[in-house]
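Supplementary notes for students who missed Thursday's class. We covered one full example, reproduced here. Read the sequence, then the structure, then the short commentary at the end.
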Amino acid sequence: MRTPLFAAFLGLSLTACTGVIGDPGPGGDDDVPGPDCGDGVVNSGETCDDGNNASGDGCSAACSMETSPALAVTIDKATVMTELMSETMLTVTFSSSGGFAGPVTLTGSAVDGASAPLAAWGITFDKTTVDVPANGTATAVATVKIPSENKGLAGTVKIDAESSLGARSATSAVTVLNQVSMPMTLVSPGAGCTEPALRAITMSIGSKIRWVNKSPEVVRIHVDAGGTGLIHEPEPGTAAGGVHEQTLASAGIANWYCHDRKPENGKTITAR
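Structure (token representation):
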């Protein structure tokens, strides 16, 4: 026979147990670990559980995934098609995550298919140090300058970014056509043509020179024989929008100008 004192004690025990079972515990706040956090099992309300209640190891003390500081480097042009005596601009983007922020130092290089340096290709930056904001982006512009001589017609441009996270890099594959294009515009009859400011260029034997007529008038290119294999353009010349092209066949120096000549319009091409 149960005594009234025993019944009262039993009732208090049930009430206490009921209170524990119905209490959601500390797991209702993302910053507070739940009752099962740290047991090595991903339970409801957890995104990870590595068996401990320590932060900084990829899984926080509250059993939520942590993002490590990271920096991604990308180039806007994965491939580039250009020609000799040209400049190409590449936009480099830096994207930070996981709270990373800080300066990034840039360097550039170019190599051929055998990983040999293409030292004649120039790579410069509008800024060599970029300050990347936390969980944000920043950009820099790299200019790739290809010489007039054939010093490599295919290569990989590599942009290296050094930060507190170490080295990151991005690449762009560059194909160079074995040619130089000269835009020509006839100013007016008897006044000559406007031509590239560069008066003397050096090119490689086997490369092609292309005179591109940018004027609405016919343009004819005069070439003095100089052993390069280039010849005087025959009549009637190159029509508006057309191209007159020749290949440098041997070593030498050739003088050329728009046939509607002004004395100061003379240019030279050295082939070697």
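Commentary. The first strand starts at residue 70 and ends at 75. Residues 5-28 have pLDDT under 50 and may be disordered. If anything here is unclear, bring it to office hours.
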